[in-house]
Q: What sequence folds into this?
């Protein structure tokens, strides 16, 4: 494509964003109905920041909860290798930002990534002056990447995944996508299939690094909390965890749960905290005696459902459960991450819709760490059979731990790519401090 055509394509893309600006404010207001945090730090979304760094900056972008949790091993390595730099972690959602605060506290600076307007991108880059940038998973923002290239900021796409659906979407902006991918300093994909789709969109020299989520070690504090939760649930009572459930799935699961005649406890942890109240009302309408996790007391025998209304405790929930259903997979949401459950040896059940974690799910099922079910009825039937077979549970626990151990190492691969573009500590140090806007 000629330079003139590329400029025209970029102009049309930016014009589209400008026309969508009123919708952006309406969307923030709409989301704030259930999650008021969306109305906090709005200026940051347009490149206006109060936070500054007196140290040189390494910037890492993680959209929401899953991407933020996946950064743990990478952030630890970055802090160890570049101790004189400040990590600036950007997010898109309030839940991602809250997860960052739980994981890192004051060890990192956390802000929102600006919307992909040229003026907002320019403010962000001039304010923090990052010496290296890293985007996690599927984040290809055309003006942001162009701004980094213009300012000579090495920008990497790490832990990259590209589903068939996402690839079709980016293909609609074929020339812009190709230009953006080729402007990146490096791309490291999770799987061969992800790498192939990125290459088909125009990426060059895509590496396959594996998945950073395999490198997450269950925090000892969460394992201890899991023991406490298990004592509250009942040491001898069987527990099925429904983790990261999405809209519509809880109703299907509660309908199917009518077939359970024993005292198995169902623990439901919705994916989005703004739905805690909605799910609580749903449980009550189904006639089940319910207790919220937040009351923090032993669960009575007559309680059949516990609502996990807490943030940042998923490892503890997994550690406290006999088996876990991974939400987002009964209905076509694409599934959620099953690796954390396997990492603590919790047998996994998953529905048919797992496109977002297709490779990890396929490998987990093949390893014997997970079982796939077609619907909520089969889910309940399989869990009843599984929870009644201690030998089968033990085999799945062992398989889960082995499955995770066999696929670790993505962090080291990512750090090798970082070193190629950033060098060792001290080799790229510049004058500390940030310029004003």
A:
């Amino acid at each position: 494509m000629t330079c003139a055509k590329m400029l025209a394509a970029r102009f049309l893309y930016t014009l589209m964003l400008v026309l969508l600006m009123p919708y952006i404010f309406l969307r923030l207001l709409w989301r704030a109905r259930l999650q008021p945090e969306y109305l906090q730090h709005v200026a940051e979304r347009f490149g206006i920041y109060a936070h500054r760094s007196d140290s040189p900056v390494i910037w890492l972008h993680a959209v929401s909860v899953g991407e933020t949790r996946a950064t743990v091993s990478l952030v630890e390595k970055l802090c160890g290798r570049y101790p004189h730099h400040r990590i600036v972690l950007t997010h898109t959602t309030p839940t991602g930002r809250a997860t960052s605060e739980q994981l890192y506290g004051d060890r990192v600076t956390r802000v929102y990534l600006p919307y992909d307007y040229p003026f907002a991108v320019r403010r962000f880059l001039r304010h923090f002056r990052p010496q290296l940038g890293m985007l996690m998973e599927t984040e290809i923002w055309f003006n942001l990447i162009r701004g980094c290239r213009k300012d000579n900021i090495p920008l990497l796409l790490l832990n990259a995944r590209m589903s068939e659906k996402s690839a079709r979407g980016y293909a609609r902006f074929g020339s812009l996508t190709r230009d953006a991918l080729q402007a990146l300093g490096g791309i490291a994909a999770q799987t061969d299939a992800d790498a192939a789709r990125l290459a088909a969109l125009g990426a060059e020299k895509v590496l396959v690094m594996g998945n950073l989520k395999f490198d997450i070690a269950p925090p000892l504090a969460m394992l201890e909390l899991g023991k406490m939760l298990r004592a509250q649930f009942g040491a001898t009572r069987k527990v099925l965890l429904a983790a990261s459930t999405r809209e519509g799935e809880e109703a299907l699961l509660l309908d199917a749960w009518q077939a359970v005649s024993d005292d198995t406890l169902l623990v439901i942890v919705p994916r989005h905290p703004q739905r805690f109240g909605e799910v609580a009302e749903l449980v009550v309408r189904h006639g089940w005696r319910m207790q919220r996790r937040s009351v923090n007391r032993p669960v009575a025998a007559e309680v059949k459902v516990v609502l996990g209304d807490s943030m940042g405790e998923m490892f503890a929930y997994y550690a406290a459960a006999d088996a876990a259903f991974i939400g987002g997979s009964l209905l076509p949401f694409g599934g959620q991450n099953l690796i954390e459950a396997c990492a603590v040896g919790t047998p996994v059940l998953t529905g048919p819709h797992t496109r977002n974690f297709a490779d990890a799910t396929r490998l987990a099922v093949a390893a014997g760490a997970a079982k796939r079910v077609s619907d909520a009825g089969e889910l309940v039937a399989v869990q009843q059979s599984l929870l009644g077979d201690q030998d089968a549970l033990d085999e799945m626990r062992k398989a889960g731990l082995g499955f995770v151990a066999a696929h670790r190492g993505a962090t080291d691969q990512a750090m090798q790519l970082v070193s190629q573009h950033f060098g060792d500590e001290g080799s790229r140090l510049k004058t500390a401090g940030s310029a004003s806007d």
